[in-house]
Amino acid sequence: MNDKYTEMAGRLIVALDYPDAEAASALVRELEGIPCYLKVGMQLYYAAGPAFVRELKSKGYSVFLDLKMHDIPNTVRGGAESITRLGVDMFNVHAAGGTAMMKAALDGAESALVADPGLSRPVIIAVTQLTSTSQETLNSEIGIQGSVQDAVVHYAKLTQSAGLDGVVASAQESALIREACGQQFITVTPGIRPAGSAAGDQARVLTPGEAIRQGSHYIVVGRPITAAENPREAAEHIIKEMIEA
Ligand SMILES: O=c1ccn([C@@H]2O[C@H](COP(=O)(O)O)[C@@H](O)[C@H]2O)c(=O)[nH]1
């Protein structure tokens, strides 16, 4: 395992979108030895809860808890405190919740660290526009005028001014975000589709290689790995493409 492999595998976040711990654990076993990040989203967390997150942490994985909090600041503060106590490496909120809500997420995380100085502060990021949202949906259904790119950059700047570490966006917007917010501001990009794979419900997609070339810090991949005939091979293929980008 060379340095480049370890670096790129660490920038691959595999989405464990499964109905229970048993199914998720089966994939984790298949990927054993690949130093990737693992993402626990709503489906798995609502079924398997904090115990499963602790299990992944005890196995040494970096964990992104993708619960996309979007509530009043006081509630998000409490949620962020509980999440930070779990020891996850990254979690998120919706940028649409506004500055006070995003600052409350930071506050909540800080409170957990005061209570337990042994913890590290997770990376806290905000969702800009979901990668399933197309230009058409944004304008005609959601009622936000202007381009998706403008909306994403607006949310990214808001997130940065609230003091968060980065955003979730499509890799199609990574370069624009870097231009607006700088290289250190983290871009976590789902909607990744290796050439020839089905987009499904994703509207703003890019291949793993193109996402890396656009400057994404992390790529999030679910179904192209979890629904593959050979998930380990699919993950290795994606890492290879990232290395070659
Ligand atoms: O804008 C967003 C925010 C989060 N996601 C999550 O990423 C994965 C993508 O899974 P695929 O199967 O590769 O489409 C999934 O867990 C989403 O909840 C996103 O897709 N877009």
TrEMBL record:
Reaction equations catalysed: orotidine 5'-phosphate + H(+) = UMP + CO2
Enzyme class (EC, first level): lyase
Positions of the Orotidine 5'-phosphate decarboxylase domain: 11-238
UniProt KW Lyase keyword: yes
Pathway: Pyrimidine metabolism; UMP biosynthesis via de novo pathway; UMP from orotate: step 2/2
UniProt feature coiled coil, ranges: none
Organism in which the protein naturally occurs: Paenibacillus rhizosphaerae
Family indicated by similarity: Belongs to the OMP decarboxylase family. Type 1 subfamily.
Binding site for substrate: 17, 39, 66-75, 131, 193, 202, 222-223
Family annotation (SUPFAM superfamilies): Ribulose-phoshate binding barrel (SSF51366)
Residues the record marks as active site: 66, 68, 71
GO MF, any single term: orotidine-5'-phosphate decarboxylase activity
Any one of the GO BP annotations: 'de novo' pyrimidine nucleobase biosynthetic process
Complexes and interactors: Homodimer.
Gene Ontology cellular component terms for the protein in this record: cytosol
Pfam families listed in its UniProt record: OMPdecase (PF00215)
Protein name: Orotidine 5'-phosphate decarboxylase
